[in-house]
Every structure is written in structure tokens, then in C-alpha cells.
Design goal:
The complex is a heterotrimer of chains A (149), B (442) and C (725). With 149 residues, chain A is an alpha+beta fold. Chain A has 5 helices and 5 strands. Chain A folds into 2 domains: 69 residues, Ubiquitin-like (UB roll) (Roll); 73 residues, DNA polymerase, domain 1. A 5-stranded mixed beta sheet of chain A has the order 2-1-5-3-4, covered by helices on one side. The termini of chain A are far apart. The model of chain A has no long low-confidence stretch (mean pLDDT 97). The termini of chain B are far apart. The relative contact order of chain B is 0.10. By secondary structure, chain C is an alpha+beta fold. Chain C is 29% helix and 23% strand. The chains are: A alpha+beta (149), B mainly alpha (442), C alpha+beta (725). Chains in contact: A-B, A-C, B-C. Chains A and C meet through α1, α2, α3, α4 and α5 of A and α7, α9 and α19 of C.
Chain lengths: 149, 442, 725
Amino acid sequence: MDLKINGANHQVDVPDDMPLLWVIRDVLGMTGTKFGCGIAQCGACTVHVDGIAIRSCQLPVGTVGGRAITTIEGIGDTSAGAKIQKAWIELEVIQCGYCQPGQIMSAAALLAANPQPDDDAIDAAMAGNLCRCGTYVRIREGIKHAARA
Amino acid sequence: MRIRRVLVLIAGAIVVAVAAIVGWMVFQPGPYAFAKGSPVDLAAYKGRPPTGVPPELAHADAATRGEYLIRMADCEACHTAKGGSRFAGGRPFVLPFGTIYTPNLTPDPDTGIGKWSDAQFLNAVHKGIAPDGSHYYPAFPYASYTMLTDADVLAIKAYLFSLKPVHQANRPNTFGFPVNQRWLMAIWARLFNPDHRFRPVEGQSEAWNRGAYLVEAAGHCGECHTPRNLLQALDQRRKFAGGVAEGWNAYNISTDRNDGIGDWPPDDLAVYLAAGHAKGRGVASGPMGEAVALSLAHLTKSDIAAIVTYLRSVPAMASGLPKAAGPAPATPKLANIDNPVGKRLFEGNCVGCHAWTGAGAAADHARLTGLRSVNDPSAANVVQIILNGRGKPGTPKPYMPSFARSYSDAEIAAVANYITARFGSTPSKVTPADVAAFRKEN
Amino acid sequence: MPPAPEAATGLPRRAVLYGGAALTAGLLIGIELPWGAARADEAVPAGKRFNAFIHIAPDDRVTFTLPAVEMGQGVYTSQAQCIAEELDVALDAVIAAHAPPDQANYGSPVFVVQATGGSTTTMAWSGPLRKAGATARAMLVAAAAARWRVDAGSLTTESGVIAHGPSGRSIRYGEVADAASRLSPPTEIKLKEPAQFRLIGKPMHRIDTPDKAAGKTVYGIDRMLPGMKFATLMASPVLGGKVGSVDQSKALAVPGVAQVVVLDDLVAVVAGNTWTAMQGLNALAIEWAPGTNAGLDQAQLWTNLEKASLGPGVVAKRQGDAPAKLRDGDVFEESYELPYLAHAPMEMTNCTVHVHDGGCEVWTGTQVPGFAQTGAAKALGIAPEKVTINNHMIGGGFGRRLEVDGVIKAVRIAAHVDGPVKVTWSREEDIRQQLYRPLYHERLKARVENGRIIAWHHRVTGGSVMAHWLPPAFKDGIDSDAVDGATEVPYAVGDRLVEYIRHESAVPVAFWRGVGPNGSIFAMECFLDLIASKTGVDPLAFRRGMLDGTPRALGVLNLAADKAGWGTAAPPSPFGTRRGRGIALMNAFGSFLAAVADVAVSDAGDVRVTRLVIAADVGKVVNPDILEAQIQGGAVFGLSAVLFGKISFAGGQVEQGNFNDYRILRIDEMPAIEVHVVPSTADFGGIGEPGTVVTQPAIANAVFAATGVQLTRMPIDRALIAKGA
């Protein structure tokens, strides 16, 4: 099947019910998107499908069709994604960094949909993304910082 | 004198009333009395026999046919404990008057049915009588199984006897007085077990008759989906209007267009039964999830079609459920729902799969909007699935984790109420005490 | 980990471990042999290695080989800051690489073995790394001086360039690297004075952040190799059980499954990708032989621990005669119990291995490369030199990667696989099959006279991590980590007796962020609040009265109390009507922290932490921005633990498996966290773990204040603090 990822077309020969996460990581070798729980409880695998943040560990690749997939490797090409990445660097949000591709993808989707998110909106968009290092204080600051940029 | 006479009259009236009520409960229509046509004995039926295995398996070996029949009757779900050996029993059922444990059906001579004769097995399945003469509780659906043919019951026995014996002693139930008086069950059986084999209906199609046999005799769908009367017998006058199974609501499966399955296209129904999910219809979970996984998913296409044919003939029976709400708004209606704990849990634990809109984030099986359970003001099944989850992680099949272990009764009540308020037609009012009670149901 | 260094003497922990022998020999070897044969884990460009840590290429590229592993705690940056400070190179021009297994060069001055943990990196390495940087700089300067025939003292360095002011000449490091590397390192090295620092003490940006923000960082789990296969595994659900029988056919029938590897204690499925391997594993019907632990359950584990706590203990500290004084008077007694905990780093256990030609190559992220090497070698029965360890950035360690069970299992599987294989654990497997923070029982007894404690008895009972992790450090029956935080306390509590009882169960144990002080300090701080409550004094005032001798402790305590507005009521919250404020102090890892927590407790007993104020005196600081982040993050780790953290056993199996039942704090459950740092010139203290340690008792004490119920077993049991409970 054909997948459109970060603007490029990829042909993959995989079963329809294989989650997109594993297609991206193991078949295509794009390892920025992370495996964290496999049950959509941690958000480390978040990607965008037509701009919507989705847990790729739960997304059967066969249901994606021609929709545009964006991963952490490509999010910097979007305005919201670039702002979030810049804020993450400026505020030193990241510690171990393993959950951060997912955090950045969720934050970028939020910012694209809601350029001035308040705390409630940040909670709603980011609560599905766990961070074991506990970078939550700076994630919140980072989103607000990006919104001001 | 006068007083005495009045008392006698009153007593008499009470006796008559009780007799009338009991009679009303006892003298019920049969499970498919609604059908036009005349029931006949199997031997007299002119169509293709509705019993046994479907035509596709007519020439299969005995083991395959036996396994198919035991799937039809779904013995495994009840007779297998969580994490235990198949058919070795020990699964607890928590009833209002105590806990009952299913017995071991493996051919172990000491703890299983290894020493049972064919007659003893038939007696058990058709009459609810154990080899020692004691009566089973009607938790064992022999009032349905009584319609199975001798040949089918003995094929099931043959299959069970082909299994590896598992030495696992049966656990006694924990019923208190008076329910612990097993002789009472003899009376119950006399009243509520017709003790006759399936009678096909001339004038109905072969598919319908096969469906009736699958639904009423083997599948015993009514045991959960038909409400029970005071004497714990199925209330056939409210056939398929919805019942309760292990704390889950077994919803109305009559043809009522709002409350039941009347508006389900036949294909949806077939897909749901065979796969446990049809688009926009949610995922069979809890006891129904087991029924699909262990029984329905193994049936042939023709048998599923027969079940659909039969179900669609059952009269509509309203049960007063509200009309389902439409799609939910894309953004959280935070201002309208004063439930910060529910919102907090939903956004953290649920949105990943179910999406803010409740439309399902990644897969349709995670859709919440339009589901009967979400539009059920009791929210029983919403609470149940949050507590119990369903399926196994890391497979392509629908999976939901259980949140029972690390979320409190108050938290689970809050998120259930949040879900029904946001996506259902009637907000539920589940309390922490309700959740505590649900936790005790298996 | 062992007790923190004595701040007064600056004695490294190793002195505590080994009685002061051979203070920093292992380390000095690395510096005194500048052309030593240290191998790096990534190809280093042509150029000159100045010592085990610094390599300068002709094109001026500077590569630092860093002894401590980056797992989020910021040590890539802080270590690089130390070297770059003295070497005079720009931080953003530095390439950082993890050190290979090489105990001589990279063995920790604290642990001797090569390990990153215990909040020790800065206290252990800042000195040696600065010295390494200064040494290399001196050699570069000497080479330039020789070339220009000028006095080395007349040369200055900045951003990798040596300049001669009087003549206006300048030369890049790369140009003199070759000549410099041929010189003998100077014997006398003068380090910069703090006033000259450009990098140390400054909130420099982390060197690992840009790649991480772009998703470019390659963690162990991201390593891809040509021809690599993917595997996942399952060990016996019952602790210590074995494989009974497996019918491989069902897994092999899954398209894409290449192989099933059945070992005595685990089954692995090898496939063309991880998902397919998982499907193969799911398809397998494995019969397990559960073994002797099938009856293990949590209630029994608690009971056994408590029973053990009544037995004779080994004396870890004795001052005066506490038992005699505790025989009469106003004596208080309580026990506190801490649960098993999983680390649950976001990057689950994984390891890629290629066994071939009598050797073995390993790609993973480990806090202990040496242990990984010897563990792999032992599993294969080959010499350690035959094992190459390629270390990676770690997606969260917290102690999980101080253990090499994941490496050993992967190596054992790979021994049966042709070509390289990446073994990735499922989250469930990672939660259920790891080594856990020990179950601790902390028994405390104190006598109070005129509002002061005059006798103190603290008995720690639990499994010993040290005994298996670093056996030489388990001396005289005492696990120095388990009693860390109990043997040295900031308070004046009169006569003291501290005892340790080692009690092992079948459950394997490991270090866990905050380590021993998570238990000992939690218990002590809760116990102080219990005494304060029973004697009717304010918990802050009670503590202040015992801190005359430790001004740093008093300083942070006062600062936290002041910033939090101690004495006022905790603010209202929609999450609960019962509100409380709690305080706690900790001194371990060479640092002093105090925390004030505000909580709201719902009628049902759910606890919401609404605010956390932390004051910290951690001595000198290399990077204040990383310090703040570490304290915030450590606090969140403690929040998850005290509110939700629990691993429990039933039928010999771990009952939890993923984030649905091993609950981790989410962003919408976060309190506001304020970190206030006390400027200090004291020796470097640890910063990774103290936040975790101090947060837990502060919250427990706030719950006590809010509900009047002191919970003695963690995590918080909501049923015990429900209204009317």
C-alpha cells in the first residue's frame, strides 16, 4: 500500500491491521516516533493524520488511506511544529527526550487548532502524553511560549 | 362472625391473587410462541432438520462436529475460570443470594464427569438433575438446553470426553437459606422447565427454524437478554426486552427500532455477531464479548444468517430507553458539565482512543457516540468496561485496558458520568457506592 | 546508594565504601595516560586524543567521551561544561559520546565500577573532568608556545583558538593538536577560579536538546542494523517459573515470524518486525511450570517483612544509649511501610545483539556498560573482551538501567539467532519482569522531653540492593543505601540507634530514583509530624528546634516555609473540601532540600496536590537550569509514587502491567511547582534524586494535616481517608 508521510510517498507491503507505529519504525526505519505502551495510554507514538494528533500504536495502517501522515521528523516544516520545537529548545523542556516526539506532536496539533490555548485547553490536549522525567511544568510553559512567538 | 368472614374472604382473595400471579409467571407463552405456523415434533418436520451441525459440516468428523456443537451451546464461557483450564469449571457467578461456581466438565473421573453415563448427562442437560439426584440451580440454562436433541447433547458429551482430564475439585456455592435448599429447585424445574425437545414451526423458513434452534436451544440468548420474573424465570411476555448478566446490562435485542435492534441492517447484525463489532455499533464486551469470542465467532456464515433471520422475527418490545444522542461537538463542552474529575480522567486516559468528539480517534471500534451503553442512563456497561476492560493488548482486535486497579470508585463514577453527559442523551448519576457494587460483580 | 560524601571533608563516597583506600586511582590513570587505549562508542574522526575524555581533530572538531551516561538528567551537558570550561571551547561546538566499558578510565570515583546513578555524577566527575580539560589546554598552549617561541604564559585561549596578544597571532586547536599530543602532560595543573567561569554555574543550553526535539536522537530502541531481525519475549508470569511446554507451530504459522526461541525461563519470537513478533508471541500457547513462587502474595509479603522487622538488627549507627532512654518517659512509636515500585521509564527495556564469530556486539542504553559487558560475556561463556558494548542515550533510567537483565536475556536469545536481533519488551513485560524498589519497613521510636527528642531508634528492614549490585559494598550485614538518610540526620535527636535488617523475599530488587532515602527519610519525616501532632506543636517549629547544628538544613526549611506561606491555610480546590499543608526536609546525596505541599482531599479520599514549594541547597551548581529541571522532575516522580505507586503480587504474579494500572501522574494532575535555590559554595551535591525523596513525605504530611489520618503504608490508600472512614 501507499503511505504519504511528511510529504513523501512510501510503498509498504504490510498487513492492513498492523499499527502505523510499527510500519513507521520497523518497516520504514523512521524511529523518531516512539513505542511507549502499545495501548494509547502514554502518547509517545503520537503522529498527525491530516493534522489531527493520533496514537499511531492504535491506528491500523490499512485505515489511513491517502491521508497525510506527519511525524516528528516532518513536524518542523509546519508553522505550529516549528514554533513548538523552538520553544522546547529555548525553555529546555526536554530531559530524557523519549516521550518528547509525542509531546511535541500533541502540542503542535493543539497550537495549530488553538493559537492561544489556556491551561484547560493545554490539559485537554496534553493529558494523554505521559512524561516519566516529569517535564510537565516546562511543557506547559513551552506551549505558552510558542503561542506568544 | 362478620370479621371472621371478612378475614376468610381476604385470605381467600390473597390465595387467589398469589395463585394468579404465580400462574401468570408459570403459564407463559413458549419462547417462540410469537411465530405464525404450527410447531411439530422434529420427526414430523418436513424441512431440512434444524438441529445438529450446519450443512457445511455435515460430513465433518465427529470431533469437529462435537466441537461445533459445544461452541453453539457456548459451554466454555461459564465452565472455564479466569486463567484456568478450559472446561475445568470454577468460574464464580455472583448472584444476589450468594456465589455459585461452575463445575468441572472435563472427563476427570473424580472431579469431572468422567464416570457419567449418557443417560446421566442427558438428565443433567435436559432436566437439570445431577447423577446424585440433586437439582441444579437455573444459573445452568437447562430450561433452554432442554430443547437440544439427544444426539446433539451426546455429541457434546463425546467432545468433552475427548479432552484431557483436569483434576480440579468443584467449589461449593455460598448460598444461604432458603436458596441453599436444593429441593426447591425441583419445584422450580417442574414449573419452568418444559422438558421437551425443540419443535420446529411449519410455515416458517428453514433458516428461521435453524435460527430458532441456535438462539433458543443452544445459544440460550434469552437467559441474559430476556428479563426475569420474581421466581427467576424468563419473562417470555417481555421476550428479549433486556436483562442483566454479571452486572452488565444485556440490552434489548427485540426488533423495537429505538430500544432494540429493529433499525440494524441485517448485515450489521451479522457482522456484529460474527466479529463482535459493526461500524457505529460498539464492541461486544463483557459476557457478550465472551459469547462472540467463544461461540458466535466460530459459527458458519449460514448459521449466523439463520440467527439474524430469527432475531428479526421477534416482536418489538419497548423497554423505555432514551433515544441515542447524535454526534458530540468537536470541542469539549466544558462549561456545561461541572465534573472536573471526570473531565480530567477522560482527557488523560480516554481521548487517546475515543477522541474528544467520542467518534473514535484511530479506529471505529473506539466510537462512543450513538452507542446504546453510552445512552443508557444507568451507565452500567460504561462502568463495567472501565472496570474490566476487554481483550488483550498487542493484537489487532479491539482492546481496552481495565482501570479498576489504580482508579478509585469516585474517579470511575466521575468519568462514567462525564462520558454519558458528553456523548449520551441522558447524563448518568453513578455514585462511588454504585462503582463499589459493580466491582463485586465478578 | 551509599551515603553521601561528608560535605565537610570532601571525601568521595568511595572512601565510605572501601575505607578510604585508593582514593581516586582509577580516575587518575585515565588522565595520566593521555594516549591511553580508550575506545569510543562512535567512530572518532582522525585526530588526537588528549586523554580518555578529549579528542581534537585537525578540523577542530572536539569530541568528549563522557563517563556518565545521559538518561535525561543532563550530565552530557554538565560534564561537557566542566571539560569545555577548562579547555576553553564553545559548548555548542562539542561532540559528545558515551564511554565504552573501560573501568580503568571511566570507573566512577564513587562506585569504582563504571556506573551512572545515585545522583553522583557531578560530585564524582566535575573535578576530574575539569582537570582533564585544563591538562589538554595546557598541552595545546605549550605546543603553540613552542611553535611561536614565546612564553606559554603570554598566550590566551578562547573558543578553541590560542592567541598571542603582543604579536596578534592566533592558531586553532586543531592546528596544534598533533604537536600538543606528543608533549608530556604537565604535572601541576591550575584550574580556573569561579570568577573566571564562563560555563560552570551558568544556565547553558543542553547539548542534547536540539536532536531530541527533532526526533533525531538514536536511543537503544531506535538502533537499526542491516539485516536486523526483531524479537519480543515473555518470561514466566509467575516469578521464577520455567517454561513447561510450547507448541511453536501457532507462532510459526503467523506470516513473517522467522523463529521461536525457547529458553528454560522465557520464550521469544523473532520476526521481520516487532509487531509481527508480538503477534507470534500472542499466538503461542505456552504452558508454564510456575515453580515455588506460585503462592506468593502481597499480604504475605507484608506480613513476612513485618515479622522480620522484629528480629535482631545489625547496628548501623550508635550514639549514646538510645534503648535505655526509650524504656520510659514520653515514648512514641510507629512503623512506615513502602511498596514495591517499578521504574517504568518511557523507553522500555530493549537490547540489540549480534552474536557471531565467537564474539558478541551489543547495542543498548545502559547505566553500567561494564556490567553489561561482563553480563553478556558470562551468558555466552566468552571473555569480556569479546563483547563490544555500544551505549546509547537512555529514554529514562531511574535505576532500571543499572540492571542488565535486559542485556543478558537479549544475549541469550541472540545466541540462537542468525544475524543481529533487536529484542524489545512489551510494556507489560517491562512492568512485570523487572527488579523492583524493595519493600521497606521502617520502625521508629523516639522519646520526647520538654518538646525535644532525646532518644531515637530507627530500624530499617528490607531487601538489599547493594548485596547483589555491588557485593563489596554490602559490608558487615549493612546495606549502606538502605540506611542512607537514617544514619546521618540533620536533626539533633539525642541518643541514637540505627539498625538494619536484611530481609529478602523471592522478589528481586533494584535501585529506584531516590533510593534508600525514599524509605528512611519518608519514615523519619512522617514520624516527626506524628510526634508534633501528638504533642500539639507546629511541625515547622518542631523541626526548627532541632536544627541548630545544621544551618543549611535550617536555611532550606525556612526558605520553603516562607515561600509557601506557612501558617496560612492551603488554598481551596475544586478537587476536595478538606485541605492541608505539609512540610518535609531531607539531607542526602550531599544536598539539603525542604518541601511544602498543599493538598485537597475529596470526600471519597482522592488526593490532589495543588502546590509544591521546594527550597534546595545543593552546594555548588554546574548548570542551574538543569538543577531546576531535575528538582521539578524528581518531585513529579515522587508525586506519582506517593499518590499511586504500587507493584503487588498475587499468585506469584505482578498484578500491574501498563499505565492503566501502574499509574503515572499526568499533566492535568500536576500541582504548581516552585523551586527556590539557595546560593551555596559548599561542595557539589546530588540533584537527580533529592526532589523525589523530599516530595513524598511532604505530601503525606499534608494529607495528615488535611484528614487527621496518618497513613503508614504507601501509596495513599483512599479508603482510609474517605470522609467518615
